[in-house]
Design a protein that fits this description.
The complex is a heterodimer of chains A (452) and B (348). Chain A has 452 residues and is mainly alpha-helical. Chain A contains 13 helices and 8 strands. The chains are: A mainly alpha (452), B mainly alpha (348).
């Protein structure tokens, strides 16, 4: 394997594994605020108990997000030093801001949220939960600003020695790409949180244990799920997709498998890209829909790969095509599932409809897959560029870190992360198995503030 | 502007060592002082609500370093590739050691994570000390500002050293002993009864070791990097810093003997901070010295980001760090005093 390929796999593997955790963290942070708000406004102790249960899941998940996140910040320098040298003057800015504005906030208030329930008033404890939510969402923002600059560079000047220099702070933060991607991404995180909560609820109802909490989780999960799934497609996905189409035609052509430019281009729902023959095998296509989705008219011409020089085609094109289709296909399924679930909830039949509970239970891994596939779409679509049209991936890696060293640490991370996966599954399963009732009964509190 | 950002990064790193230093110290002392399950619980609870926030100083200083001196970040992080990756693994081990051990009520499970917590803390201390020693000794920087260091070569601090040589190993041992002392004093502050006494006894012992190691490390540093002494003699006022190192070390010992725990702990904080500031003064304006050709040094001047970015950065940095300091005040005052023995609700 070449050194470049190993560095790419190194980053791809560690970032993919890392993002399994923050997506639940960010989604759950919002849902915990919802639970605590209901508890406060309706004076309903069950919602307090529910938020204590999810706080435990949150804490372990947050921990794994932290320990797998630190390697991400280091890897810009360790494995992508030439990229860091050239672009550090720009992307260092949001990354440093993430540390200063988000991590301090998050870690402090998480400490208060987890350990401080007995020491804080109910409103102050709600405030701690809210600040954890704010911190985790700020963190997401700065990461997206970083990625958005690589996707759609703005506010820079290129120096003679190949380095980039920032020319406008607000230009960097107000990059339209960043805001569209942020909306789409955060919504995706809420989908994960909602599906996980609903799935645990469905599990309890199917088991016929912890029934009251099962219903509560299911109720909050499917309502949050429906809202986030719909916003995921429209407007966030729609707007983001159009912006990509305008600025990265090669990415859209690769995602859709459009080898030839076409007026009234069809949308391919399924098929297998054949790069040598430049066609999609076994296509399942709907005419003119792609033109309509991008330009709002069925006759518009969509740029195909034939108009793009071959050395600028997205590398690993089939993977781009599949990532995008998996993301979009699952996103559509989520909406259908949640519409049925909310409809039955409204009719008062959700808790008894076993087949649907099974669907909800078994669907919990799917938002993880969809979120991962979405990120793969964004990042593979950017290839072969590290900074779009300005710096190639092949120019950015640490040339003096040999393939042997890179493989050594890649294997280390593979082993370490296998262990973390097993631990996460064991611990979270035990939480779910133990149920929400026994978590931290508040009347044991000597201070007695919580039971007020 | 370069000097400002040099000191910002240096002080953030010092804050990291002072704050996370006692978390690491608790980890090192954990199997030594934590004889009963109750002892271990107290030790974990003493750092439970704060360790993660303390670790953030490392991340925030890393991010700030990246932003202010991208060339240094690119060079040092790729050149120290292997030890940094090992530090990452150790940070993972330390984190899960603290947080996961109490999630399953099983003796084997707990013992496993206790071991992970201890080992990763001890190795972290050694690696952090060795890392600082590497920066002081210098690395074989090429004209392109890149280098790559193997973990060890012939253990000599020559022009082609490894991460570990006789000098950096001394640095590692200094850090190990210093953080053990620091952790003992923090524990003495937070624990009560027999555990508190044991922490103080252990602190006295490691304080003696620290005095010896500090005495060895100062001449060793001058030997490895004579330029440091020239920097100091050019600005004689800077000798105040090594003087403060000695005073704070003496203060740590004296207050410990008098059982003035808070003063002893604060002296230990001052000791760690002045050691780091002393190293920074000796280096400035060099960020990473070249062991092969002084002309290839990475300096503040040749590594600094664009002027505009640095000006904007200063505005948000002051604002952001003020907020962060506010959070720390809130958090530390909430969890001040001895660790309560009743259940804190969440794990540990």
């Amino acid at each position: 394997m070449t050194t470049l390929l190993l560095h790419r796999i190194h980053f791809a593997f560690t970032i993919t594994f890392h993002y399994l955790f923050p997506q639940l963290t960010m989604g759950l942070a919002l849902l915990i605020v919802v639970l605590k708000t209901v508890a406060l406004t309706k004076h309903d102790e069950r919602y307090d108990q529910a938020s204590r249960f999810w706080a435990k899941v949150f804490a372990v998940n947050f921990l794994l997000g932290v320990v797998t996140g630190i390697p991400m910040e280091f890897q810009f320098g360790t494995n992508w030093s030439e990229f860091s040298r050239r672009a550090g003057g720009i992307i260092g800015q949001p990354l440093a801001m993430e540390g200063v504005f988000s991590f301090f906030l998050e870690s402090t208030f998480l400490g208060l949220f987890l350990f401080g329930e007995k020491r804080l008033s109910r409103w102050a404890h709600w405030g701690a939960a809210f600040m954890v939510f704010v911190g985790s969402w700020i963190s997401g923002f700065f990461i997206i600003v970083t990625d958005a600059w690589m996707q759609h560079p703005v506010a820079y000047r290129l120096l003679p020695d190949g380095r980039f220099e920032l020319t406008s702070f607000w230009g960097l933060l107000m990059n339209p790409w960043a805001w569209l991607q942020y909306a789409h991404n955060m919504c995706g995180a809420v989908v994960t949180g909602a599906f996980v909560m609903a799935a645990v609820g469905a599990f309890y109802l199917l088991e016929q244990r912890h029934v009251e909490f099962g219903r509560l989780f299911l109720r909050v999960g499917v309502i949050a799920g429906l809202i986030s799934c719909m916003v995921q497609i429209f407007p966030t996905g729609d707007l983001h997709g159009r912006y990509v189409a305008k600025n990265q035609p090669a990415a859209i052509a690769g995602m859709e498998g459009l080898f030839h430019s076409e007026k009234g281009a069809p949308i391919v729902l399924m098929g297998q890209p054949d790069i040598d023959q430049q066609r999609i095998d076994n296509p399942l296509a709907v005419n003119k829909v792609l033109s309509f989705l991008i330009y709002g008219t069925t006759e518009a011409e969509v740029t195909g790969l034939d108009q793009i020089p071959k050395d600028q085609w997205p590398t690993t094109l089939p993977l781009l095509f599949y990532s995008y289709h998996i993301m979009a296909g699952l996103g559509t399924y989520f909406v259908l599932l949640m519409i049925v679930a909310v409809f039955l909830l409204w009719r008062g039949r959700l808790y008894q409809t076993k087949w649907l509970l099974w669907f909800i239970l078994l669907s919990f891994p799917l938002p993880y897959i969809a979120n991962t596939a979405g990120w793969m779409t964004a990042e593979i679509g950017r290839q072969p560029w590290l900074v779009y049209k300005l710096l190639r991936v092949s120019e950015g890696y640490s040339t003096h870190v040999s393939a042997g060293n890179s493989l050594f640490t890649l294997l280390g991370f593979l082993g370490m992360y296998s262990l973390l996966s097993i631990l996460w599954i064991v611990i979270v399963y035990r939480f779910i198995e133990a149920g929400p009732e026994k978590v931290n009964a508040p009347h044991n509190s000597p201070a007695g503030m919580v039971t007020a | 502007m370069g000097a400002v950002w040099f000191w910002i990064v240096a002080l953030m790193l010092a804050a990291y060592v002072v704050l996370d230093g006692f978390d690491i110290g608790i980890g090192i002392l954990y199997p030594i002082l934590g004889r009963s399950g109750q002892d271990r619980k107290v030790m974990l609870r003493s750092i439970g609500p704060v360790w993660d926030g303390n670790e953030v100083w490392l991340l925030a200083s890393g991010g700030t370093l990246f932003f202010a001196f991208p060339i240094l970040y690119a060079s040092a992080f790729s050149g120290f590739y292997l030890p940094l990756m090992i530090v990452l693994w150790l940070l993972i081990g330390r984190g899960i050691g603290i947080e996961l051990r109490s999630q399953v009520d099983n003796a084997v499970w707990r013992s496993f994570f206790d071991g992970v917590f201890f080992l990763s803390s001890a190795l972290l201390a050694i690696f952090l000390g060795a890392a600082l020693a590497n920066v002081i000794r210098g690395v074989p920087l090429g004209a392109d500002h890149y280098f790559f260091l193997p973990l060890w070569t012939d253990w000599r601090a020559g022009s082609h050293p490894g991460i570990l040589d006789w000098y950096t190993v001394i640095g590692g041992v200094v850090a190990l002993v210093a953080l053990t002392t620091h952790g003992s004093l923090y524990l003495a502050l937070k624990a009560s009864g027999e555990l508190e006494d044991r922490a103080l006894r252990c602190g006295r012992l490691s304080w003696l070791g620290l005095c010896i190691m500090t005495l060895i490390s100062l001449p060793a540093t001058v030997l490895v990097r004579p330029a440091m002494l020239t920097h100091y003699s050019q600005h004689p006022a800077a000798f105040a810093i090594p003087a403060m190192v000695v005073l704070s070390l003496a203060g740590t010992g004296i207050y410990m003997r008098r059982r003035e725990e808070l003063k002893a702990f604060l002296s230990s904080c001052l000791y760690l901070a002045t050691m780091l500031v002393g190293a920074a003064v000796g280096l400035y304006p060099t960020l990473l010295p070249s062991s092969s050709n002084p002309g290839d040094d990475i300096t503040v001047a040749n590594a600094l980001s664009g002027t505009y970015a640095m000006h904007v950065g200063l505005i948000w940095w002051i604002f952001g760090i003020s907020l962060a300091l506010g959070y720390f005040v809130v958090s530390y005052s909430m969890f001040r005093g001895k660790v309560p023995l009743h259940d804190d609700g969440y794990g540990h």
